[in-house]
Amino acid sequence: MEKIGIWEITSGRELEPSPTTTLYVIGNGSDLAHGVSSSYSKFRDWLGRHSDLRKVLETYIRNDALWWNFEEALADLDLDTPSMAIPEMLDASVKPL
Fold it and tell me: In the chain, helix, strand, coil percent, each to 5?
């Protein structure tokens, strides 16, 4: 067990899980390792089927960078551009499942 400030860091095998005392930190890639289709390309495909937002993102963000480095590409959004009203677009364009 390692101690960082007031926190005790363990592997999880050393404690009895408790909903009031246990925080599970799941690393990047664990979803894919367990067969969950949650890659950015799967999200892109879903978004293209259910919303116009994919088209908007690909118009305003360099397409070559958008899906392979999604978080960094989001930083390139110009939210001052009037047509980039993404919150309103999300509310209006996502089709119910």
Answer: 40, 5, 55
